[in-house]
C-alpha cells in the first residue's frame, strides 16, 4: 500500500518525514470526518447516544481506534472507533440505522470528490500541495471502500438489518471482531483480497475524479 511502499522507497529522509506528516494529517482528517458524520446523522435522526458519548466532535482523539490505527500503519487500511447507535431511538429503526452507517463512507467519498476536483481544476500534478491532496484523496477512498465490507462492526454489515431478525444480527455483531480479524489475516497472509480490491478500485475512482492517473 501507499504508506509502506513509500517508506521502503529510496526517497530522502526529509521526503519520508514530510510524507509521514501528511499521512498523519490525512489519517486524522479522514477518520474524524467519517466518525463525526455517523454521530451527526444519528443525532439528526433522533438518536443522541453518540452525542452524549462525546462523539459529535471534530477532535480526532475522540475517534481514533487503537487496532484500526495500527492496521493503517501495518497494512494500509483500517478503521476508527465505532460510533454507538441505539436504533430504538429512530422513527424507522432499520432504515435509519443503515442511513447512519452509510453516512460515514459517503462522507469519505464526498471529501475525495472535493479534493479531487481541486486537482482537476487547478491542474496540480506535483509539489507539496499536490502530495498532501493526493494522500487525502487516497485515504478517503481507502476508508470508504474498506468500511463498506459487510463484516461487523464495519458499516457495510448494517445492510444485514434488512434481512435478519434483531436477535440474529446481534449474535452476528458479537462475532464481528473475530470475523473481521480472521478476514484481515486471511487477506494479508493467504489471499490478498483487500489489497486487490483497493489496488483496482482506488486508481479507477482517482482517475474518474481528478482526470489524472493514480501513481500508487
List the keywords:
single chain, mainly alpha
Q: Describe the largest sheet.
A: none
Mean pLDDT across residues: 86
Backbone structural class: mainly alpha
Shape: globular
The count of β-strands is: 0
Proportion in β-strands: under 5%
Q: Which bin fits the share of residues in helices?
A: 55-70%
Number of H/I helices: 9
CA-atom Rg in angstroms: 18 Å
- Give the N-to-C terminal Cα separation: 8 Å
Weakly predicted, low-confidence segments: none
Question: What is the N-to-C order of secondary-structure elements (H for helix, E for strand)?
Answer: HHHHHHHHH
Description:
It is a single chain. Helix content is 66%, strand content 0%. By secondary structure, it is mostly helical. The protein has one domain. The radius of gyration is 18 Å and the shape is globular.
Please outline what is shown here.
With 216 residues, the chain is an all-alpha fold. It has nine helices and no strands.
Write the layout of secondary structure elements.
Blueprint: H1 2-7, H2 13-44, H3 49-52, H4 66-75, H5 93-122, H6 128-147, H7 166-174, H8 176-189, H9 193-210
